């Protein structure tokens, strides 16, 4: 049984009809208590009387699911006017503080209650007529059912505020921004969950930057608060939590989006917005349309009602530093979708516990994730860059969450194509409190009621577990058919066969067969590095390429940039191997990965580029010689007073597939 089917069996669609004096409870729903409310025989319905009447329902759930709560209601008129505001609470939480309905005809109103407000067993949902009421409110029936959300494309209706998903997103974000930094459900607190520069959450005894990117020095808008601070306990539990450069990157961010979406959904419904609102996604990979550009709603300074647009951000400079936000398809791609293994390939390497910044970036994170962060953020000087270009700032930019919804969509699409997530307990259980290896900090997110949600990757393994889907989960038009190995065999063995076995995690040990022997510093100009190859591994590689077939798979070859350290997160570089394009890498996260108190004690970033196809081309042309010429070129506008970063070593590895 699928998770969606389980949810439906947990709460099948059912209703209680109040056209009788003693309504019959349904399987999961009963009227457990009422006062100042009762049956009105002349109207064949129940009503809430003036001033404080309430109806308390008991909703039984075997496990929390997203609940569609629908009521058929009618407003009573006194002298031709209705004054009957109601509130709805869920397990003591003020879900809808005030709902005003002046329709004197029976009609259906609906809300969506997120699982985070519900529990296994009995749940109390109370509908109360507020004390300010001067007329009655009639309820004819209450309907409940398990439901799910659909995340839609942000570019629907041209990506403007004609798209109701974006308009309501703006209204929800504005409500979150109105809350204090110390409130776990505020916009600012959620930004700090991803990363922050107000206090040093990784090492409380170490100072934060004295200027930008300290949050006090972010150019408005928005005006970012730095006080009041939450308690030190809350900071330790929630802040600086994002998982990067490791295999927890996809599941941690899925839980992060889900928690934010639950809070926004409630705030939107409290303002009269739709019950089925879900976080939109920005599909910047659809190169046949104008979706390469940021949705126009994010570039407007005002909403349609002429109030300030909370989606507009000043520190969003773009790859050329001119505030024109678009995604360059020559840099950003989704080749990661061709991967067939999660660990050490698609999702990242095993970080052996909590890693705010590890050193084993997966291909999904490397490109498109990191590239889009930097192409949106950009920089305008060596001391000022966009929010999206730095993980300690990125969660403050509303476009962040639409970018990550697309990353989450790619992961779900990758799974839909038949690729499996890890079954290793180290991944499924996350870095939990019982982890014997240390690094035990678990993943926590704030619930809408301020409580903490503890979650593990096993709880967010699929999107159906969280009761949502995407408007489009299909592969994009420009993803090549088949995987990398198929393409290589077509070139090496001149075979069109697609009967190559699917490669899962390769547990062979990579063999180092070349490394740089010079100091490497990157800046605003191209850098040249020569790597000498060892003869014995090179001969093994050549033999592997010469005998390649479906039964004798060729070796993989990787170029690894090790120990990338610096302070400038906003830069992107292109790598050429013997003048052949090896791909791009981003410095996103370098500041935090280079900090001495980081998970890997300041080891910096490590970037792995698969250059197997380049090795194939050099072999076929007879140019696989003893040396590889590496050129690293900056992309876009880079402001660097000296070097943006240093690299400890550039290494070449051979990995046998047999």
TrEMBL record:
Domain of life from the UniProt record: Bacteria
SUPFAM superfamilies: Di-copper centre-containing domain
Keywords assigned: Copper, Metal-binding
Metal-binding recorded as keyword: yes
Stretch forming the signal peptide: none
The UniProt record lists the keyword Metal-binding: yes
PROSITE patterns in the cross-refs: TYROSINASE_1 (PS00497), TYROSINASE_2 (PS00498)
Domain Tyrosinase copper-binding: 244-261, 397-408
GO molecular function, one term: oxidoreductase activity
InterPro entries: Di-copper_centre_dom_sf, DUF7868, Tyrosinase/Hemocyanin, Tyrosinase_Cu-bd
Annotated protein name in UniProt: Tyrosinase family protein
């Amino acid at each position: 049984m699928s998770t969606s089917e389980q949810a439906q069996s947990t709460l099948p669609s059912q209703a209680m009809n109040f056209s009788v004096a003693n309504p019959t409870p349904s399987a999961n729903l009963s009227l457990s208590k009422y006062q100042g409310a009762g049956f009105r025989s002349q109207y064949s319905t129940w009503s809430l009387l003036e001033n404080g009447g309430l109806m308390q329902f008991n909703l039984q759930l075997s496990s929390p699911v997203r609940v569609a709560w629908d009521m058929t209601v009618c407003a009573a008129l006194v002298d031709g006017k209705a004054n009957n505001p109601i509130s709805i609470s869920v397990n003591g939480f003020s879900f809808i503080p005030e709902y005003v309905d002046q329709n004197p005809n029976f009609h259906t109103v609906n809300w969506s209650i997120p699982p985070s407000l519900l529990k296994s067993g009995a749940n109390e949902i109370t509908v109360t007529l507020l004390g300010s009421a001067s007329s009655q409110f009639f309820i004819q029936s209450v309907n409940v059912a398990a439901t799910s959300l659909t995340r839609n494309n942000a570019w629907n209706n041209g990506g403007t505020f004609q798209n109701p998903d974006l308009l309501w997103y703006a209204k929800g974000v504005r409500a979150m921004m109105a809350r204090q930094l110390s409130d776990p459900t505020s916009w600012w607190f959620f930004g700090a969950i991803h990363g922050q520069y107000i206090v040093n959450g990784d090492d409380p005894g170490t100072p934060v930057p004295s200027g930008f990117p300290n949050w006090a020095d972010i150019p408005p808008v928005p005006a970012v608060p730095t006080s009041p601070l939450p308690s030190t306990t809350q900071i330790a539990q929630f802040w600086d939590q994002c998982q990067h450069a490791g295999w927890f990157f996809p599941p941690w961010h899925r839980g992060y989006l889900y928690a934010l979406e639950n809070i926004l959904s409630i705030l939107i419904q409290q303002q009269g917005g739709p019950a089925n609102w879900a976080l939109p996604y920005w599909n910047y990979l659809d190169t046949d349309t104008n979706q390469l550009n940021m949705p126009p709603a994010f570039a407007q300074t005002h909403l349609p009602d002429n109030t300030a647009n909370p989606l507009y951000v000043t520190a969003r400079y773009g790859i050329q530093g001119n505030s024109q936000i678009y995604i360059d398809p020559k840099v950003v791609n989704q080749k990661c979708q061709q991967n067939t293994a999660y660990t050490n390939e698609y999702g990242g390497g095993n970080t052996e516990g909590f890693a705010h910044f590890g050193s084993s970036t997966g291909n999904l994170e490397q490109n498109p994730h990191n590239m889009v962060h930097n192409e949106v953020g950009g920089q305008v000087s060596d001391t000022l860059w966009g929010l999206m270009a730095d993980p300690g700032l990125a969660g403050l930019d509303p476009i962040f969450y639409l970018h990550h919804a697309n990353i989450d969509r790619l992961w779900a699409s990758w799974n839909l194509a038949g690729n499996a997530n890890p079954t290793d307990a180290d991944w499924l259980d996350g870095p939990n409190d019982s982890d014997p290896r240390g690094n035990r900090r678990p993943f926590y997110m704030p619930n809408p009621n301020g409580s903490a949600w503890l979650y593990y990757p096993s709880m967010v393994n699929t999107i159906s577990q969280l009761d949502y889907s995407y408007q489009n989960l299909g592969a994009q038009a420009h993803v090549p058919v088949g995987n990398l190995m198929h393409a290589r065999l077509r070139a090496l063995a001149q075979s069109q066969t697609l009967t190559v076995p699917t490669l899962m995690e390769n547990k062979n040990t990579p063999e180092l067969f070349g490394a740089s022997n010079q100091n490497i510093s990157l800046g605003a100009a191209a850098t040249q590095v020569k790597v000498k190859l060892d003869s014995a591994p090179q001969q093994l590689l050549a033999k592997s390429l010469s005998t390649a077939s479906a039964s004798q798979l060729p070796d993989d070859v990787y170029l690894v940039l090790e120990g990338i350290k610096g302070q400038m997160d906003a830069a992107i570089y292109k790598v050429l191997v013997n003048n052949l394009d090896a791909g791009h890498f981003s410095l996103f996260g370098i500041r935090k990965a280079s900090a001495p108190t980081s998970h890997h004690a300041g080891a910096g970033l490590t970037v792995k580029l698969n250059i197997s196809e380049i090795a194939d081309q050099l072999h076929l042309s007879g140019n696989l010689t003893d040396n590889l010429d590496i050129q690293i070129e900056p992309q876009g506008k880079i402001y660097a007073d000296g070097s943006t970063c240093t690299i400890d070593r550039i290494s070449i590895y051979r990995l046998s597939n047999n």
